[in-house]
Amino acid sequence: AQSVTQLGSHVSVSEGALVLLRCNYSSSVPPYLFWYVQYPNQGLQLLLKYTSAATLVKGINGFEAEFKKSETSFHLTKPSAHMSDAAEYFCAVRRDNDYKLSFGAGTTVTVRA
Amino acid sequence: NAGVTQTPKFQVLKTGQSMTLQCAQDMNHNSMYWYRQDPGMGLRLIYYSASEGTTDKGEVPNGYNVSRLNKREFSLRLESAAPSQTSVYFCASNLGVSEKLFFGSGTQLSVL
Fold first, then answer.
1. What is the mean pLDDT of chain A?
2. Shortest CA gap A95–chain B (Å)
3. Which among A31, A35, A58, B39 could disulfide-bond with A47, CB atoms 3.0 to 4.6 Å apart, if both were Cys?
4. ω into residue B8 within 30 of 0, thus cis?
5. Which of B42, B50, B59 is closest, CB to CB, to A105?
């Protein structure tokens, strides 16, 4: 079964600082990997997805993630945090042709002025 | 552009009561899903419908039933609500298995 581990349930960064959210997966075969964002009182929105075309994936709002097979990781980064980045972020994984998407527990990001 | 619409937004039930959560999408998506979100546990798949006329169990189906009424609508029913079903419920849809999910805004359910 697929599983996803997000390290750190809460991350606090200063405005303008680097945002780094960690995600590790367990999979016997290369999976499809996703990052979703949830703003307060809203549903989730896709930030980016990895589908084996390139190891560095660029998403919306300046976020990007790098797939590292040797480390089974898919960490999310943004060089300079903005106040509007305050939200909860979820890493997710699924196998090819599997409708079941497995989510991590989520990381809440707060941005300090 | 409505996207995925869920009703109701909030609901309080007593233990043993039943209710149905409604979900409709206007994007002509083939697949629809019901997730529950609990603190520290992320989202867990309850049931999904890969296409009209089909439904399958997800990770946590016990205590729930679903109906794919037509291509647009996918409802989730709690026959006898329990306090353990207190959660935020999200409906989602996508065009197919490899496509991104579109989520509704959620239903906050409390079972007393």
1. 90
2. 10
3. A35
4. yes
5. B42
